């Protein structure tokens, strides 16, 4: 009995001290892009701009993106920013600057549009 | 590949040949000849051996050494004995040479940082949302007062604002905090726009602030998140 419990604790310790591979600790842009695009399409795929629904759409996009990102299971803190803009001919610029560790942290921006809506989602991932 | 010495110069070969011909069998350890299977020479055999003595040929696997006693008689073509020992790295002065004779670069010295055993920020060193908000608002107001929207210049203006805000925050930033700053600048038309953000962070140590500026032709939204780096 004692041997098996000792073995159990040893196994658990090995799991704790496992050093994650490079894939698990760096920000991978591709899979995040697919995840976010799915979230946006499922929420406002075919809708036109409606002022009353905007609140709901925003919450839904941001929450679903964040939950999908969490499901990836990587040791990252995430910031998801979403901008929804009505197509009116007006111009828009976004810029970001970050103070972080270039080797482990990253960001990606996804632009999506349909006939009446522009949607810009930015995801920042910072390694713990 | 690893152990190939330089081929012997003609001079040293000639020297060796002379020494072989003049002093047969006098030194203590017996010397081997290329291709020969005889081991020792006695003084009686001198007359017989001399005509058989051939000048040495250069071989690719020759290893010069000062002693030949370790050579086995069955090794027929690999070793001859020489008076001088060559060293492989001798001609590269000061540099480090690998075993194969190629140059080694100076290794990049990694910086090893010790564990601080700190799991959270110090009591007075949290990301201050109110102070950051004041800085943000002041920067936006001072920079965008009286500026008109123009499509060419506003993209640069936007990036410059983001960098400016970051540089101002770096001075105020507590240690071990990462900062993400985002600026949105748009033309003030009659369109509706909404900016939202949500983040996965530790509410005890991390925070965010935002500031808005608007005039007759443009609007600007600045978002700053401060995240503790564990």
Automatic annotation (TrEMBL), chain A:
<dbReference type="GO" id="GO:0007018">
    <property type="term" value="P:microtubule-based movement"/>
</dbReference>
<dbReference type="InterPro" id="IPR005334">
    <property type="entry name" value="Tctex-1-like"/>
</dbReference>
<keyword id="KW-0206">Cytoskeleton</keyword>
<dbReference type="GO" id="GO:0005737">
    <property type="term" value="C:cytoplasm"/>
</dbReference>
<dbReference type="GO" id="GO:0005868">
    <property type="term" value="C:cytoplasmic dynein complex"/>
</dbReference>
<dbReference type="Pfam" id="PF03645">
    <property type="entry name" value="Tctex-1"/>
</dbReference>
<keyword id="KW-0243">Dynein</keyword>
<protein>
    <recommendedName>
        <fullName>Dynein light chain Tctex-type 1</fullName>
    </recommendedName>
</protein>
<keyword id="KW-0505">Motor protein</keyword>
<comment type="similarity">
    <text>Belongs to the dynein light chain Tctex-type family.</text>
</comment>
<dbReference type="GO" id="GO:0005874">
    <property type="term" value="C:microtubule"/>
</dbReference>
<keyword id="KW-0493">Microtubule</keyword>
<dbReference type="GO" id="GO:0045505">
    <property type="term" value="F:dynein intermediate chain binding"/>
</dbReference>
<dbReference type="InterPro" id="IPR038586">
    <property type="entry name" value="Tctex-1-like_sf"/>
</dbReference>
<keyword id="KW-0963">Cytoplasm</keyword>
Automatic annotation (TrEMBL), chain B:
<dbReference type="Pfam" id="PF03645">
    <property type="entry name" value="Tctex-1"/>
</dbReference>
<comment type="similarity">
    <text>Belongs to the dynein light chain Tctex-type family.</text>
</comment>
<protein>
    <submittedName>
        <fullName>Tctex1 domain-containing protein 1-B-like</fullName>
    </submittedName>
</protein>
<feature type="region of interest" description="Disordered">
    <location>
        <begin position="1"/>
        <end position="56"/>
    </location>
</feature>
<feature type="compositionally biased region" description="Basic and acidic residues">
    <location>
        <begin position="42"/>
        <end position="52"/>
    </location>
</feature>
<dbReference type="GO" id="GO:0045505">
    <property type="term" value="F:dynein intermediate chain binding"/>
</dbReference>
<dbReference type="GO" id="GO:0005868">
    <property type="term" value="C:cytoplasmic dynein complex"/>
</dbReference>
<dbReference type="InterPro" id="IPR038586">
    <property type="entry name" value="Tctex-1-like_sf"/>
</dbReference>
<dbReference type="GO" id="GO:0007018">
    <property type="term" value="P:microtubule-based movement"/>
</dbReference>
<dbReference type="InterPro" id="IPR005334">
    <property type="entry name" value="Tctex-1-like"/>
</dbReference>
<dbReference type="GO" id="GO:0005737">
    <property type="term" value="C:cytoplasm"/>
</dbReference>
<feature type="compositionally biased region" description="Polar residues">
    <location>
        <begin position="1"/>
        <end position="25"/>
    </location>
</feature>
């Amino acid at each position: 009995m004692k041997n098996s419990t000792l073995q159990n604790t040893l196994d658990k310790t090995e799991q704790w001290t496992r050093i994650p591979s490079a894939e698990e600790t760096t920000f991978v842009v591709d899979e995040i892009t697919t995840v976010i695009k799915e979230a946006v399409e499922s929420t406002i795929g075919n809708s036109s701009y409606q002022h009353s629904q905007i609140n709901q759409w925003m919450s839904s996009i941001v929450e679903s993106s964040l939950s999908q990102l969490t499901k990836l299971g990587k040791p990252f803190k995430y910031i998801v920013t979403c901008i929804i803009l009505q197509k009116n001919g007006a111009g828009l610029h976004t810029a970001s600057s970050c103070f972080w560790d270039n080797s482990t942290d990253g960001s990606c921006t996804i632009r999506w549009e349909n006939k009446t809506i522009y949607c810009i989602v930015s995801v920042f991932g910072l390694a713990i | 590949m690893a152990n190939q010495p330089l081929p012997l110069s003609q001079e040293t070969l000639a020297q060796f040949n002379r020494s072989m011909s003049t002093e047969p069998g006098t030194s203590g350890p017996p010397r081997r000849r290329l291709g020969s299977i005889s081991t020792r020479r006695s003084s009686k055999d001198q007359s017989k051996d001399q005509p058989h003595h051939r000048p040495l040929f250069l071989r690719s696997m020759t290893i010069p050494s000062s002693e030949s006693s370790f050579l086995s008689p069955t090794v027929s073509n690999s070793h001859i004995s020489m008076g001088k020992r060559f060293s492989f790295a001798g001609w590269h002065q000061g540099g480090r040479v690998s075993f194969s004779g190629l140059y080694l670069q100076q290794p990049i010295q990694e910086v090893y940082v010790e564990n601080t055993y700190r799991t959270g920020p110090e009591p007075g060193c949290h990301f201050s949302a109110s102070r950051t908000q004041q800085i943000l608002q002041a920067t936006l107001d001072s920079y965008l007062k009286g500026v008109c929207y123009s499509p060419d210049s506003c993209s640069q203006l936007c990036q410059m604002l983001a960098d400016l805000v970051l540089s101002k925050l770096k001075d105020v930033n507590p240690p071990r905090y990462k900062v993400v700053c985002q600026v949105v600048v748009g033309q003030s038309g009659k369109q509706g726009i909404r900016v939202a953000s949500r983040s996965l962070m530790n509410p005890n140590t991390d925070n965010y602030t935002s500031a808005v500026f608007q005039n007759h032709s443009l609007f600007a939204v600045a978002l700053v998140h401060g995240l503790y780096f564990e």
